[in-house]
Amino acid sequence: MNQYDVAVIGSGPGGYVAAIRCAQLGMKTAIIEKYATLGGTCLNVGCIPSKALLDSSHHYEDAVKHFEEHGIDIPGEVKVNIEQMIARKQGVVDQTTKGVQFLMDKNKIDVYQGLGSFKDATHINIDSEGGKTETIEAKHTIIATGSKPSTLPFIKLDKERIITSTEALELKEIPKHMIVIGGGVIGLELGQVYKRLGAEVSVVEFMDRIIPGMDGGLSKELMKSLKKQKMKFHLSHKVKSVERKGDEVIVKADDKKGQEVTFTGDYCLVSVGRRPYTDGLNTEAAGVKLDDRGRVEVNEHLQTNVSNIYAIGDVVRGAMLAHKAEEEGTLVAEYLAGQKPHINYNLIPGVVYTWPEVAAVGQTEEQLKEAGVDYKVGQFPMRALGRARASMDIDGFVKILADKATDEVLGVHMIGARCADLITEGVTAMEFRASAEDMARMSHAHPTYAEAVKEAALAATENRPIHI
């Protein structure tokens, strides 16, 4: 029987990062993956493939709508080759997952392919597809089994017309009308992909705004921008039935007045969040406790009630984000090595990769109001930037929230071009407990989108932005 200092169950961003960090710190490490390729949801059917399709569809939309204005004439009709688009996406996925395999080899991490399940607290059974079962012994185990798409109790997913994000990444045709249930990150990103390619897209959301977990100002601005792109929104609608008839999907919902509304399309994307995935893990055999939402219960060190077993990422409390899982994987590895790592969960950024991109870190205005914090706001529109006008990406703004008494930055919220990258400036500033004035006094290259951060900080400091 092979013995290890650490066994990691699950090879997504949390799992493979945990394994690498454990190996770097001198621990003999194994990683167990149920599927044929490493990388988990993020690399195979999540972050990476969805961004590939977002980029491809963005290029197409630019060619159809904006190239002429830039002085680029394309003879003939610009057409979508959906087969090639999906193939390119898969190529990106394959290259990325092979990169993870390379990192496992480089760090001398043993990779086991099969379903990992606890035999007891220190032994893990690995069932391969061929029916073979192998058992390994691990001094410590890290559960990193991630999450799966959620659905609603009355919805029967057929994975053909009534689909999740996984199937939406593999469609063989462009929908005529895609009904998206859920106005969160995943639904909006994939909805925009198919809207750009020519589908009619209707978003049906239970709450009274899209991206409900983010700052209200971002929700309003993003919906305004997506409406200009002809996406349709039906807020405060409670879906009560989804039925397929042939190639048609009928969705019935009650609006905010309680009146029934019917939507008919050829595809329905169910995007109502994700659930922690522990199926087949046999946590009972190890004595590991789950909470009432199916998450693995952990303490501040991400340690379960069984002292040698830890859990990270989507399978534990907190935001279901790949980069949060990575930080947690690093934390557990370093804690096992006797170090004193720390994660500030308030400073884990959130991003929506639509265009315009949406990104945020820290507290929202709603949260600050609820907590009774006396704060000030500095906001600056993207359209006032020379760089934004040059690229024709004028939608959006940067908003900085700062403590009224101390000027410490409490939250940074932005929507616009390249905000997914730009938010790191806010994270960095807040990690060092910067004031709005600190951010305002930093030199920002001109012309860049980042100048909006400086201007918003100026607005928060002394209400003295330069360019508006």
UniProtKB/TrEMBL annotation:
InterPro entries: Class-I_Pyr_Nuc-Dis_Oxidored, FAD/NAD-bd_sf, FAD/NAD-binding_dom, FAD/NAD-linked_Rdtase_dimer_sf, Lipoamide_DH, Pyr_nuc-diS_OxRdtase, Pyr_nucl-diS_OxRdtase_dimer, Pyr_OxRdtase_I_AS. Belongs to the class-I pyridine nucleotide-disulfide oxidoreductase family. It is an enzyme of class 1 (oxidoreductase). This is Dihydrolipoyl dehydrogenase. Binds 1 FAD per subunit. The active site is a redox-active disulfide bond. The keyword Repeat does not apply. Keywords: Disulfide bond, FAD, Flavoprotein, NAD, Oxidoreductase, Redox-active center. It holds the Pfam family Pyr_redox_2. Residues 348-457 form the Pyridine nucleotide-disulphide oxidoreductase dimerisation domain. Its cofactor is FAD. It catalyses: N(6)-[(R)-dihydrolipoyl]-L-lysyl-[protein] + NAD(+) = N(6)-[(R)-lipoyl]-L-lysyl-[protein] + NADH + H(+). Residues 4-329 form the FAD/NAD(P)-binding domain. GO terms for molecular function: dihydrolipoyl dehydrogenase (NADH) activity. Its EC number is 1.8.1.4. Gene3D superfamilies: 3.30.390.30, FAD/NAD(P)-binding domain.
